[in-house]
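Input structure tokens:
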């Protein structure tokens, strides 16, 4: 027979284990209390009996048997809670409240103290015979007489038994309450886990929009729910980004593939007519294919960055050293185009990010600056720390610039302004830079350059800003 779900949960099993350990510890503790209390009661009873025996022996030493007998009669008639028995040397009873000694005859003839625990038979108010626990000691006096002194310890033992029963009852109550608490905790855990399992089941069924409920208790269940929700947010963004990337690639590559096919078809017609150059047609096809691959890689990189939410494999590096490496690649290009290239790099700065992505973004910014700056112009690369603690890569050129109304649009994919229609490119350079900046928690800023140069425009300043690194 299968147990209910509540009794099969881990919290309930842990509760049972805890209660078992508690019951074992409580049993040992209660046994110790019982033994210690019972021992203390016996010790006190023995001390009182010993004092009474010493008092009677003093009376015997002062007046002999007659004085001891009179003392016993007087004390037995009083309210002392003791039991007495005095016998002569032949074992005949002289006086006392006991009819016979509880000490065996063999032990009675030996010298020294003889202690014994025995049952005292009495008749209660209803006429019923009751046996109560008692304890006493017997000694042989110098004249051969034997004296037994005992005491009724029934009330003391009843008190000890009452304490033990109360403790056992308290232990049983604690166990019952612990079981009830275990059931409640198990049900609470089951409710929480059922909610999380429902979320997992929904996600497995394909519903990425479901989320775990946050109770606001700020406990481990809320932390688990928040972690699960964050994971689902990332998964949803990733899946959405991949779907968007697929759609974007299918949409954005349609035009270049169509142009490639059209050029191949036109080249084939010309070659068949004996007018075209096959080698030139193949070279053009390879250039178009390289452009398609470049566009594909750029779109896929942007989609992955946007889906991931942050750049992968981040590490600390010196932005000045990275910029110096990139400037060595673009300085010869600037010389070929007769551009004045300068680099102002602040050393010993530190940022955290993906070095390859940042290098690609900086290369895209420099590539645009070199491409659109007319001959005789200037390009300036800077790396510095802002007063806010952020680190800035900036490239300033003296090209045509970007009008203020187009600066938000120009970072979108495949957007090309009128003054760049004749330049090669796919319109993905600044889009990739913006995606890299966002993936690093930074931003991309576009501003006017140094001003008009040779009637070409106001120039452009592109700043890739990365957050401060502690």
């Amino acid at each position: 027979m299968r147990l209910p779900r509540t009794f099969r949960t881990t919290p309930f099993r842990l509760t049972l284990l805890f209660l078992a350990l508690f019951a074992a510890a409580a049993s040992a503790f209660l046994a110790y209390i019982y033994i210690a209390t019972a021992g203390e009661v016996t010790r006190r009873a023995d001390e009182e009996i010993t004092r009474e025996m010493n008092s009677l022996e003093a009376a015997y030493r002062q007046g002999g048997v007659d004085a001891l007998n009179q003392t016993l009669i007087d004390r037995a008639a009083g309210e002392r809670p003791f039991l007495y028995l005095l016998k002569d040397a032949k074992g005949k009873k002289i006086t006392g409240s006991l009819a016979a000694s509880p000490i065996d005859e063999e032990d009675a003839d030996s010298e020294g103290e003889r202690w014994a625990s025995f049952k005292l038979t009495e008749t209660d108010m209803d006429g019923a015979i009751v046996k109560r626990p008692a304890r006493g000691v017997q000694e042989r006096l110098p004249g051969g007489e034997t004296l037994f002194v005992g005491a009724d310890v029934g009330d003391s033992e009843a008190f000890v038994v009452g304490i033990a029963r109360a403790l056992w009852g308290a232990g049983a109550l604690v166990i019952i309450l612990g079981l009830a608490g275990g059931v409640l905790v198990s049900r609470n855990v089951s409710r929480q886990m059922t909610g999380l399992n429902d979320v997992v089941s929904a996600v497995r069924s394909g519903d990425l929009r479901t989320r775990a409920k946050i109770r606001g208790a700020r406990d481990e269940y809320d932390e688990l729910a928040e972690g699960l929700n964050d994971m689902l947010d990332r998964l949803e963004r990733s899946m959405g980004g991949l779907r968007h990337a697929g759609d974007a690639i299918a949409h954005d590559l349609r035009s270049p593939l169509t142009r490639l096919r059209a050029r191949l078809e036109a080249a084939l017609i010309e070659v068949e007519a004996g007018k075209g150059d096959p080698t030139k047609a193949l070279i053009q096809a390879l250039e178009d294919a390289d452009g398609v691959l470049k566009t594909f890689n750029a779109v896929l990189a942007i989609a992955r960055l946007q889906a991931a939410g942050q750049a992968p494999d981040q590490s600390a590096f010196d932005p000045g050293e990275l910029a110096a490496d990139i400037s060595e690649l673009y300085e010869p290009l600037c010389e070929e185009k007769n551009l004045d290239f300068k680099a102002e790099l602040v050393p010993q700065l530190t940022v955290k990010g993906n070095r390859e992505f940042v290098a690609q973004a900086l290369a895209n910014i420099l590539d645009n600056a070199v491409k659109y700056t007319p001959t005789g112009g200037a390009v300036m690369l800077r790396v510095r720390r802002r007063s806010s603690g952020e680190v800035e890569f900036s490239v300033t050129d003296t090209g045509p610039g970007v009008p203020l109304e187009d600066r938000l649009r120009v970072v979108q994919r495949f957007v090309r302004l009128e003054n760049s229609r004749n330049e090669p490119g796919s319109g993905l350079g600044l889009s990739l830079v913006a995606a890299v900046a966002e993936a690093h928690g930074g931003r991309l800023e576009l501003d006017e350059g140094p001003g008009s140069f040779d009637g070409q425009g106001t120039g452009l300043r592109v700043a890739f800003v990365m957050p401060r690194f502690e």
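The CA atoms of residues 269 and 370 lie 38 Å apart. The chain has nine helices and twelve strands.
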